[in-house]
């Protein structure tokens, strides 16, 4: 116990151990140091000779347990250790806080991405609906002219008169893409282009074309004013 920061002595008789002393000293759980003589005085009652609490002690030697030996060490060593422990734990708490804040930011970013994807999904659904309508429009458009062509060919083959009065109203020309709106003039021009082909087919067979009827969706154009 060379590094003891105070003079070890019996708290009852104040006797101090020396290098040649063979008298044992004890440290009680109530933190009192007693020599063997004072301890024997209260041995029958098994109480501390200072505070009279139940005695439980450890013999003071060079090989005493670490938790007991620490009471005889320089407290500055423990102060530095506690400072190091406090700094370590503070750094770990700060690191944990940074990780938590990073997790929050990632979560908020994922929420923004989810909202953006949800908006994109809604836009795609709207686009699909528009494309379905456009596809149905194209199908009706094609079906109409397939019927016109079939009836025209049959009428030429049978040398009979063909009238478009028996057909349904011609559908509007479908736009080239779903984002562009087909206007009336474009529909009218496409109608005349197709009608031109039919009239030429009649002309080649020496017959008068029946396509002199003004169709729906072309009210501003007079066929008689056109030079075919």
Automatic annotation (TrEMBL):
GO terms for cellular component: synaptonemal complex. Residues 163-228 are annotated as: Disordered. Gene3D superfamilies: Zinc/RING finger domain, C3HC4 (zinc finger). One of its GO terms (biological process) is protein sumoylation. It holds the Pfam family zf-RING_5. Residues 175-188 have a biased composition (Low complexity). One of its GO terms (molecular function) is zinc ion binding. Keywords: Meiosis, Metal-binding, Zinc, Zinc-finger. Residues 10-52 form the RING-type domain. The keyword Zinc applies. InterPro entries: Zip3/RNF212-like (IPR042123), Znf_RING (IPR001841), Znf_RING/FYVE/PHD (IPR013083), Znf_RING_CS (IPR017907). It comes from the Eukaryota. The keyword Zinc applies. This is RING-type domain-containing protein. It comes from Drosophila ananassae (Fruit fly).
